[in-house]
Design a protein that fits this description.
The chain is of the alpha+beta class and 450 residues long. It has helices spanning 2-11, 162-166, 212-231, 241-260, 273-299, 310-323, 330-358, 362-371, 373-449, and strands at 28-43, 48-60, 76-80, 89-91, 94-97, 105-109, 113-125, 137-146, 154-158, 178-190, 198-209.
Length: 450
C-alpha cells in the first residue's frame, strides 16, 4: 500500500538527531499558534495560573519530501512524533507538568511541512494583582522559545494575524469564574550578557473575574449590617437597648468575617481592597459602639454630676440645635421654665401647710393673741415642742423636694445635651459612612467598566 511504502521510504534513512536542513546555514522557522480553551484555576497564594490551550506549530523538514505521483498521489501522511525531529519549543513560565493528553502523531505534507497539533494543560507562574478583587483583571504571559537553539538556527513567527488571535474565543469555555477578554501576541529577541539571541513569541492572556458571586456573598451582607448599625441610632440614647443592639451587630460582623476569610484571596505581596473595606467597616462599628457608650454614660447617673456648664449650653443647646436643624429645640427652654414653676409650686404648698399647722389666718392669730394672751401663754409650754417638731418635718420635706427637683433639672439638662451630642455624632458618622461607600463604589465601578 502507498502509506506503508511512503512511510518506509521517508523513515528508512532518516536521522532525527540533527536539525533537518541540507545547508546548516539555513534557519528553521517554526510557526506557532495558540487558542485558549479554558481557565482552570487561579492560585493567588502561589501565583500560579492553570490554563488549557490548543497549541499548533509547523515547520519545514527538508528530508521529508516526496513526489506524490510515485505514491498514488498521496500528499499528506501522519508519522510518529518519536520518529522525526521536533523543535525544543518550551514555555518559560512553566512551573509544573499538567495532565496533558499525549498526541503520538504529526502531519507531514509532500512539501516537507510538518504540523504538530496538541492540547496542553499549562501551569505557569504569573504575577497576580488582587488589589481590585473581586473586580480584578489579570494579565499572564506565555513565552514560547527554543531552550537551546539561538535565532540563527530556530526562528519563530506567528501562524495567524495578531488581530485574529486577539479576539478569537471560538473554542473558549466561558461558563466559569473567569472571562477571557483577549490574547495579545508579540515577537521579540532575548539575549543574556551579550550572548547569542533567542527568538521569543509572547502571548498575553488577559482574563477578568466575574464579580457577581462575591458581590452577593461578601459585599451585600456587609452593607446590610452597616445599614442596621445606622438604623440603630434611632433607638433612644437613655435606654440600654442601643448598647446591646450594637454589641450584637459587632459580634455578628466578627462571625461574618470568620466565615468569609477562606473566600478572600491570600497573598504575601498585598491585601485586596475588599479586605481593607471589611477592616474599616469593623472599625466603624467599634466607633459607633464607643459613641453609644459615651452617650449612655452621659445621660445616666446625673446625681453625681454638676450642672451643665454655660459654655456647653451655649454651644450645644443653642448654636448646635440651629446648625443641626433640630425641630424641638424650643422645648429645651420650656422644660427649664416648667421645672422652676414646679419648684415654686412646691414652695407655696409647703408654706400653706406651715400656716395650716400654725393658724389658719393671720388676723385670727392677732385676735387670739389680744384677747386670750393669758390662756395661750399658759398652754405655750405644752404646744411648743409639738409645733417645732412639725415645722422641722415640713422643712425637711421641703428641702428634699427642692433637692430632688434640682437633681431633675440637672438630669434634664444633661439629657438634652446627650440628645444634641447624639444627633451631632450620628450625622458625622453618617457622613463618614456615605463618603466611604461612595469612594469604594466609584473605584469598583471604574475597575469593572475599564
Amino acid at each position: 500500500p502507498a502509506l506503508r511504502r511512503l512511510s518506509h521510504s521517508l523513515l528508512a534513512h532518516y536521522q532525527k538527531d540533527t536539525r533537518p536542513v541540507r545547508d546548516w546555514r539555513t534557519t528553521t522557522t517554526v510557526v506557532i499558534d495558540l487558542m485558549v480553551y479554558a481557565i482552570l484555576s487561579v492560585d493567588e497564594k502561589n501565583q500560579v495560573l492553570t490554563t488549557y490551550i490548543w497549541y499548533r506549530q509547523h515547520w519545514t523538514d527538508e528530508f521529508l519530501r516526496w513526489d506524490p505521483e510515485r505514491f498514488d498521489n498521496l500528499t499528506q501522511i501522519s508519522l510518529p512524533v518519536e520518529s522525526i525531529w521536533v523543535p525544543d519549543i518550551l514555555i518559560n513560565e512553566f512551573v509544573d507538568v499538567g495532565k496533558s493528553p499525549h498526541v503520538p502523531y504529526v502531519y507531514v505534507s509532500h512539501h516537507g511541512e510538518v504540523q504538530n497539533l496538541k492540547p496542553i494543560q499549562v501551569m505557569t507562574a504569573c504575577s497576580l494583582d488582587i488589589y481590585n478583587f473581586p473586580f480584578d483583571v489579570q494579565n499572564c504571559s506565555l513565552t514560547f522559545t527554543s531552550w537551546l537553539h539561538h535565532i540563527r538556527d530556530i526562528n519563530l513567527s506567528l501562524w495567524r494575524q495578531p488581530e485574529l488571535v486577539k479576539f478569537d474565543r471560538s473554542v473558549f469555555m466561558n461558563q466559569g469564574e473567569w472571562e477571557l477578554l483577549y490574547v495579545l501576541s508579540s515577537f521579540q529577541e532575548f539575549s543574556v550578557k551579550s550572548s547569542d539571541s533567542y527568538a521569543e513569541m509572547k502571548f498575553y492572556v488577559v482574563i477578568r473575574r466575574r464579580p457577581l458571586f462575591y458581590t452577593v456573598s461578601l459585599l451585600l451582607p456587609s452593607i446590610f449590617l452597616m445599614v442596621m448599625d445606622i438604623v440603630g441610632f434611632y433607638l433612644p440614647p437613655n435606654s440600654g437597648e442601643r448598647v446591646s443592639f450594637k454589641i450584637t451587630l459587632l459580634l455578628g460582623y466578627s462571625v461574618f468575617l470568620i466565615i468569609v476569610s477562606d473566600t478572600l484571596p491570600a497573598t504575601a505581596v498585598g491585601t485586596p481592597l475588599i479586605g481593607i473595606y471589611f477592616v474599616v467597616c469593623m472599625a466603624l462599628l467599634v466607633i459607633s459602639l464607643t459613641e453609644t457608650i459615651l452617650i449612655v454614660r452621659l445621660v445616666h447617673k446625673q446625681d453625681l454630676q454638676p450642672h451643665v456648664p454655660q459654655w456647653v449650653k451655649r454651644l450645644l443647646l443653642e448654636r448646635a440645635t440651629v446648625l443641626l436643624c433640630i425641630r424641638d429645640r424650643d422645648t429645651f427652654s420650656q422644660s427649664r421654665t416648667q421645672s422652676s414653676d414646679i419648684s415654686r409650686q412646691v414652695e407655696n404648698d409647703s408654706t400653706a401647710k406651715l400656716n395650716q399647722y400654725g393658724c389658719e389666718d393671720t388676723r385670727e392669730c392677732e385676735t387670739a393673741g389680744g384677747t386670750g394672751h393669758a390662756a395661750a401663754s399658759a398652754g405655750q409650754e405644752e404646744g411648743s415642742p409639738l409645733l417645732l417638731g412639725v415645722l422641722r418635718e415640713i422643712t425637711a420635706i421641703r428641702q428634699f423636694l427642692e433637692k430632688r427637683e434640682e437633681f431633675r433639672d440637672v438630669a434634664r439638662e444633661w439629657l438634652q445635651v446627650g440628645y444634641v451630642l447624639d444627633v451631632l455624632l450620628f450625622r458625622a458618622y453618617l457622613v463618614a459612612v456615605l463618603a466611604y461607600s461612595v469612594t469604594l463604589g466609584t473605584l469598583w465601578s471604574v475597575w469593572r467598566d475599564a
